[in-house]
Write a structure and sequence with these properties.
Blueprint: E1 2-7, H1 13-26, E2 31-36, H2 42-45, H3 61-68, H4 82-86, E3 88-89, E4 103-107, H5 121-135, E5 140-145, H6 150-153, E6 162-167, H7 171-186, E7 192-199, E8 215-219, H8 222-228, H9 240-254
Parallel strand pairs: 1-5, 1-6, 2-4, 2-5, 6-7, 7-8
Antiparallel strand pairs: 3-4
Helix pairs in contact: 1-9, 3-5
Length: 255
């Protein structure tokens, strides 16, 4: 399954991406997490220290020149080896005797104009790697997108299986979610789930055109609030049973 996460900045899409990746790996699935957000926070959310984070692909000028060239650019380079070469392993914690899957992180860096006719060498390589992951990679692939709707407007994730649109229970955040949902449908992405984060109960949502009809509510977690004051990782919380329930609902809603 290939799933992208989008939404307004600060709503928790990176956290949900990290949770779902960890959940799938603990269930025995191989997972590749793709940080396509220029904030580059997915690795730390998954438990890596700053010094353990991989160099973003957009910063690998040696690879860009090798695969794309200069002058006349190769816009269809062979990138089949890059996910394995550039990804780093992420820790997976599981109960004794439980077989876990492999969990890896690939950091993309900034994508400017991808899918919009831009011939920039770095963008061409980033887009080629994303396309390979979505179309050919056998592992589960979870893509944490840039905040807002820009990636969707450029067609970056037009081939993913589904989209998790993350929002807080606020009018402004839900209006952004509705715009994301509408753009995704224009790209041929009808399979969408709205994840409303940090809620108490199940609030009544406003009727907004474009808002995904399938909704998963994510409760406000005291353990997460306390953790984020001390460290960047969102994994290993005492709230994991509630988090796992949210992940299971997301998968069911996406199926």
């Amino acid at each position: 399954m290939k799933i992208a996460f989008a939404g307004k900045g600060g709503v928790g899409k990176t956290t949900l991406c990290a949770w779902l990746g960890d959940y799938l790996a603990r269930q025995g699935h191989d997972v590749i997490l793709v940080d396509a957000d220029t904030a580059l926070s997915l690795g730390q959310a998954c438990g890596l220290e700053p010094g353990e984070l991989p160099v973003p692909l957009s910063g690998r000028e040696d690879l860009i020149r090798e695969r794309i060239g200069s002058g006349y650019l190769s816009l269809n380079p062979d990138v089949s080896d890059l996910p394995g070469e550039l990804s780093v392993e992420l820790p997976v914690a599981a109960a004794e005797g439980v077989r876990t899957g492999r969990k890896r992180l690939l950091t993309m860096g900034s994508i400017t104009g991808a899918g919009d006719g831009c011939a920039c060498a770095a963008n061409a390589l980033l887009k080629s790697v994303l396309s390979h992951l979505v179309l050919q990679e056998r592992s589960h692939v979870l893509v944490d997108l840039e905040a807002g709707v820009e990636h969707l407007g450029r067609g970056t994730v037009a081939a993913v299986d589904g989209l998790v649109v993350v929002s807080e229970p606020s009018r402004r955040s839900l209006e952004t979610a509705a715009r994301v949902g509408a753009l995704a449908r224009e790209l041929g992405l009808p399979r969408q789930v709205l994840a409303v984060n940090r809620v108490v109960g199940e609030p009544r949502l406003p009727s907004l055109e474009g808002l995904p009809g399938s909704v998963v509510y994510v409760p406000a977690l005291a353990g997460l609030t306390g953790r984020q004051l001390e460290q960047a990782s969102v994994l290993g919380l005492d709230d994991r049973p509630a988090i796992d329930e949210v992940c299971a609902r997301l998968i069911t809603a996406m199926s």
